[in-house]
Prior knowledge:
Blueprint: H1 3-17, H2 30-39, H3 45-58, H4 62-67, H5 70-77, H6 84-99, H7 108-112, H8 119-130, H9 139-148, H10 158-171, H11 177-191, H12 209-213, E1 230-239, E2 244-249, E3 260-261, E4 264-266, H13 273-281, E5 285-290, E6 294-297, E7 302-312, E8 325-329, H14 340-352
Parallel strand pairs: 1-7
Antiparallel strand pairs: 1-4, 2-3, 2-8, 5-7, 6-7
Helix pairs in contact: 1-11, 2-3, 2-8, 8-11, 9-11
Amino acid sequence: MDPAIFRRRLLAWFDRHGRKDLPWQRNHNPYRIWVSEIMLQQTQVSTVIPYYTRFLKRFANVRQLADAPIDDVLHHWTGLGYYARARNLHKAAQLIRDEHHGRFPKTLDALQALPGIGRSTAGAILAFAFDQRHPILDGNVKRVLTRLHAIDQWPGQRETEQQLWQLAEQYTPRSRVRDYTQAIMDLGATVCKRGQPQCAQCPMSKNCAALAEGDPARYPVTKQRKPLPEKTVTMLLITGDRHDVLLQRRPPSGIWGGLWSFPERPGHEVDGLVPWARQTLGLDIQLTQTLPLIPHTFSHFRLHIQPVTAEVVGEPPAIMEMPDSVWYKLELPDSRGLAAPVQRLLQQLRKTE
Length: 353
């Protein structure tokens, strides 16, 4: 398709139907745009908006984010998932504070040098904040381009991705870059949808190769996936006598990295939990209830959580000898990052305590 025609049709469609009232569109502040772009990675706009609003209320600028404890950052991310995004956001804010004098970088290379920012995210930030001309290639744009050209290979292949970047470069205009960038994202999100493309509303329908073939939903071609591995862990919900529960900070990398969770061990066998708690946690406990299994799916495996409630026998220690452990007060919860299943289990405990 002729790039000039594509741009003209897309911008005309955007002027009539594009999204222009999203919270991060109210000004061109690069910090606010950066936060929105990171939150929108693999997450829908409707889900992001309330998190974004709360996050910006607490961390109004890059210095406030950089100076904040990581626990506070993860707390405001709780429930949004993909927590590496929050950890990278915090690290990047500290780098901007320390190496860029608190000023947001204005070049593609400088942005890509920050953790959590790839080429497409960097291009989007620079386009929205500074109206700089950079192509983007997020999931919405990939879907639009693969359908428009009926690209019959998985977009994750190196050759296919390079082809898509070339097309994105050809179509990106030299004027109205900010509008164009939002327009092509909006087209993919609201019209060229993943499961049910609204082809009758699409300004490119006359030139769409996938529609001409009769089955646009077949694109993008998906990668053949192997069945997800299954894993099971037991989480011990140990309560003391002061309406508190034992939480431990998870390692900084891996699933739920840096978040707070219950003590856990592999498998779902209840037998042996009492001596395990004595040896591993230094606590004498008695088990009280085995709760129903909780399934939780990650991108690369499916986790089955077996929650088991328990009580401390005798007086629980006020200060745990183990590092990164805390007696979390159910009635006065503090600000710390919690994985979504842990948050739900804490809510159950509050109801029963």
